[in-house]
Amino acid sequence: MRKTLCGLGIFLVFFLGMFSTAVQAAADPSIQLLINGSKVKPEVPLQLVNGRTLVPVYTVQEGLDIKVSWDGKNRKVTVVDGSKKIELTIGSKTARVNGVQKKLDVAPVIISNRTFLPFRAVGELLGAEVDWENKTRSVILNKKTTPPPPKKPETPQVVKVTSIQQTDQVISIQTSGKTEAKSFTMNDPYRIVVDVQNATLATASSAIPGQGTNPAIKNVRFSQFEPDVVRVVVELAGSAKYDLVQGASKIEVKLKDIQSPEPSVPPVTNPPVVTEPVEPPPVIAPGDGTTQQPNPTGPLSLKQRVRIVVDAGHGGKDMGATGNNAREKDLTLGISQHLANNLGADPKFEVIMTRDSELDKQLTERGVKQELSEKVNIANDNNADLFISVHINSSTSASGKGTETYYHSDKSKGYASTIHKHLVQATGFPDRKIKKANFQVIKYTKMPAILIEVGFISNPSEAKEMQTEEFQQRVADAVYAGLKEYIQNN
Length: 490
Fold this sequence. Notes:
By secondary structure, the protein is an alpha+beta fold.
């Protein structure tokens, strides 16, 4: 590098020496030169011309890491730095920057057969910061570096889920390319949930080849859970450990250590009764020693009282989904109690709750949960007219959001539509529509039954709102309004 610079200096001396111009200049060896924090010592002293500091051309080239060339015919020095081109003519106070004229305080000169350039002017034209420190008699230049433009985030490739099949203890998810899958488990019943990221369904069939070959696997279902997430749910008869194996075009859920379901433990007390202080209509709890009156069939709108079971999802040792400092079992219980209070104050309704705070406390202390079959039996044994189960949703992504309502049989579809219409208005969350599903509490109940997913506990904004008393009451009011509308029209 030094030899190259010296060669350039000799080259410039040879050609520029023929055009030396008489100027009033004085060498000042006391002036120090700092470029980008480093001290640079030129081979010849810096020059002062009319109070301006001039530096040898090769020092400019070396210190700023730029290209410098000489046009002897036109007595012109050209400085190139990236996309910027500066042309300076000996003896001229006019420079050209990318073809645009710029005025200089002092012109480039030739002194003792060496070419000197106005340091401040060149630095500023290159976009550098130039300063003078009088105490140390230093000329300071810091060249601005333009950071590279931020890289645009790569749009992940969207793959297609082409098929899902079961082979004994393995669930295989075929994809059109490699992608990421996230998994977690849920209880009541035990489920393994796999969210295939950046994926869309390429199959319209809900049939899963091989399903039913292993009695430990009760059900496998899938859906387009989010616009870019395909959710696969493996429901087990008991519980199991599993490995999630991800390949180039296949994701496998390999079950191991499958456990049989634990025998259900009957609760210490009977299901709770919601009571009101001022002569409320009776609230029936199964097995409380009273004789349950038959519930006449016929249109709901013509019945003197409509018997409804309100199920607060999860409970006891079963927390349900958790996230953002909230537990699903607490949120569902809060909403359900508000709803039961609304219904208990209306003489049109008899309300039965599957769980209240006292029962939940007892279940938790005993380390047991309320089995789904118990909830189904409460509704069926009491000849309920309607059943509603309150739940809170969860996702592997914090961006999952919205309200949805599930039904199983066609007789429950109108019920689901009516309640969902009121519910989604009350939550203000995105509308995830009504969906058909095989959840146990709505599959085996004999009356119209629905399961509502109010919002996502995994979404910080929705979780925060769902924890407020005002929100829970608003949801309860909306469901109550939906129930009255459905009964009036049926």
